[in-house]
Structure formats: C-alpha cells, structure tokens
Specification:
- This protein is mainly alpha-helical.
- The protein is built from six helices and three strands, in the order ααβααββαα.
- It folds into two domains: about 110 residues, Arc Repressor Mutant, subunit A (Orthogonal Bundle); about 30 residues.
- The protein has a three-stranded antiparallel sheet.
- Helix 2 crosses helix 5.
C-alpha cells in the first residue's frame, strides 16, 4: 500500500531523506533488537548472563581498572543498570571491585580469573556470530558498513552534545496558527 504525504507549501515541511536513510533509526533499532535477542538466548544458555552483563565484562576485559563512571560512559547505559549488573557480576564471582591506587574514593573494576575466562569465551562467541551474519556481505560491503557506522556514531555523538548544550535550538518553530492546547480533564462524578 502506498501512502502519500499531503502536498503543502508550508515552510514547516521537511524534505524526504534519501531512500537509504529513510527511517534509519527504526531500521537500526530493529537490527539491534534482533542482535540483542540472539545474544540474549546464546549468553543466557551458555553463561547464565544477559547481553548487558556480557557487554560489561567485555568492556572490563578490554579496559581493566575502569571506574563505574567510565564504564557507564563507554557503554551508554544508565548508571543504575550498570550498577545493578556489576553488583550481580561481583556476586557471581566474575568481577571484583578494587580500591583505586591513586584515589581510594575511586573503585576500579577488574575481572576475576573466572570472569576473564567467561569474557574471552563470550568474545569469541560474539565474533563468530558476527562473522556468520556478515558472511552475507562482501569484504567491501563489510568495510563500507563499518565506516558508515563510525561516521553515523560520531555525528550522533556530536549532535547529542549540541542538544545537551543548547536544547532550545533543536525545538521546531511554533506554528502560531495552531496554538498548543492541553487536554481538558473530565470530572468524574462520585
């Protein structure tokens, strides 16, 4: 079914993005959701861990001595989710919290021997599964995809920082012919 946007000469109309970029965030979200579900099933069966927990131990594997705030920044996950997951990983004996060598107020995260083993196995599993998925793409397409993700990620990070610095500049201009109205609440008779 073809759906057409109504034609209008309004200044608020936005040009359609190029075909390849149409709904790109939705498409990436769907792809990400599929990857996460595959990872969730695999990691849960093999290690009893969630995708989030595996993401965290992989970051700690590649960056030993991270602080919680550094881990949050690297993973773009909410602080409370990271904290809960690290607590669980600590209880499972995969992660240990060490008092910072430079500053005792900074707790550093490190994998235990068992955590290192699990992280390396999970890393191998992730690389193998990714390789199987990417086998459908030529080497040139794989490289182009990687470069495209790098460019989009950098641009999104840049735009996010701009939005955080000046959120009002990203708000659409108000259409004075269409004032905003708040919904009227209905009174319930008792």
């Amino acid at each position: 079914m073809n759906v057409r946007r109504p034609s209008s000469s309004s200044a608020t109309d936005v040009a359609d993005p190029p075909q390849g970029a149409r709904y790109i965030t939705l498409r990436l979200d769907v792809l990400s959701g599929l990857f996460k579900e595959m990872g969730e099933l695999s990691h849960q069966r093999r290690f009893g861990l969630s995708v989030r927990e595996v993401r965290l131990i992989l970051q700690i594997l590649h960056n030993p001595g991270l602080t919680m705030s550094q881990l949050v920044a690297l993973t773009y996950m909410e602080k409370t989710l990271v904290s809960r997951a690290v607590t669980r990983l600590t209880q499972l004996g995969l992660v240990q919290r060490l008092v910072g060598a430079q500053d005792a107020r900074h707790v550093q995260l490190q994998l235990t021997g068992n955590g290192d083993r699990v992280a390396r196995q999970a890393s191998g599993d992730v690389l193998q599964a990714t390789g199987e998925l990417f086998a459908e793409l030529s080497d040139a397409d794989q490289q182009a995809f990687g470069r495209t993700l790098d460019v989009l990620t950098a641009r999104a990070e840049q735009r996010l920082e701009q939005l955080r610095a000046a959120p009002e500049q990203w708000l659409p201009a108000a259409d004075s012919s269409q004032p905003l109205k708040s919904p009227k609440s209905k009174k319930v008779k008792t």
